[in-house]
Amino acid sequence: MIVSFGVENFRSIKKRTTISFLPTKQEDNTQFPAYFEKDGTKFSKGVGVFGKNASGKSNLTNSIVALANIVLLTQNAVLTNGLAWVTPFAFSKENRKMPTIFDLEFTKGARHYFYHLAVTSKEILEEALDVRDERRRMVFLRKAGEEPRFCPELKGNPLVGLLLQSALPAKPFVTQAAQINLPYLRDVFYFFQNDFISTVGTGNPAGDRIGSFIASDPNYHAFLVSLLHSSDLSIDEVKAKKTKLRFPLVPDAIGQSAFSGPVIEQEIHQVITIHKSQDGFTELGMGDESLGTQKVMALSGGLYHAIREGKLLVVDEFGSSLHHELSTYLLSLFYDPDINRNGAQILFNSQDALLLNEGLLRRDQIYLTESVTEGDGTEVVNLSEYSPRKGENIARGFLGGRYVEGPRINPGELPGL
Hints:
Layout: E1 2-8, E2 17-20, E3 35-38, E4 41-44, E5 46-51, H1 57-73, H2 93-96, E6 100-108, E7 111-119, E8 124-132, E9 136-143, E10 149-150, H3 152-155, H4 158-165, H5 173-180, H6 185-194, E11 196-199, H7 210-216, H8 218-230, E12 237-248, E13 263-277, E14 280-285, H9 291-309, E15 312-318, H10 324-335, E16 345-350, E17 366-371, E18 378-382, H11 394-399
């Protein structure tokens, strides 16, 4: 379960920014309990990030995805091109030379983990892990140019020697630790591998493996059909149809109506939607469905696995192309205790300001982004810091610029028209 996440010097984010999943002591007036309680600690079920276009809200949610990519995708990578996921603050020459910094706190059982990573696109400058059960203690500390330090419990472990023999400047210790099953360190890798899901909800069910899920998991199939019925999308059934796609092996063949050169074939599970019609039933391909329907289906895999298995789901542009009532319903799946029984959490950004008034999110679960100036980068503020009055219309205040500035539209002549 995630506790907090911090990032600094990433894309439009210049200054240290932290998102917390620990609720404050404010009054809880939400429709459902907005947090889980475990061993005397409360954890928020979800956190939403709201802001105008180009304010940096996507960069905030994407930063934790970048950390996940660094930890997971460097496991078997050669890293000849460095760490492509690291993009420092672009509007300062000084910041482009500085590391991007990530800090993640999460729990596994009764133990808290504190993971720190300072990294450039070429190498890791600092990496550290602390754990806390009875007390907080260091597991390891790695700094570029210095001898790594390990806790007494691991110092004599032969796996540490194996880790150091195979160490690479751009590969995290926690990534290598998973390959050799080194205690404590491996748990960071397993958090991202087993307890973390990210989706941009692009409306591409094929890209999100929806067809293969339908074909291989009857429980997912039942969930998807029920979700489509509940969402009032006029779809009665879905199925997966095996089909082969042919691709040109060489770029010159792209765009030709008939491939004259060598081709490769790939078998996929095509998603077919089934609708009742005057003639009985009509089958449609996903390309025939509305963009909103495609978005729901693209998001369904992440929803299913997160809620069923108690994972963290990170969603960019949540509610895009969806009716507000449908967005509210999908978000409520994380808050309804009868549905979310396994501790699933969601971190999302959204343009749907009406979600601020729906009684799902507590005020301390709402973060607002504002792009101040190019030199300062994205500002991220928790709504609680504005001390909104009890009963205040948060959506109206947000749209009216009470908390953060909205877009400044400058109507005028448009050259070239």
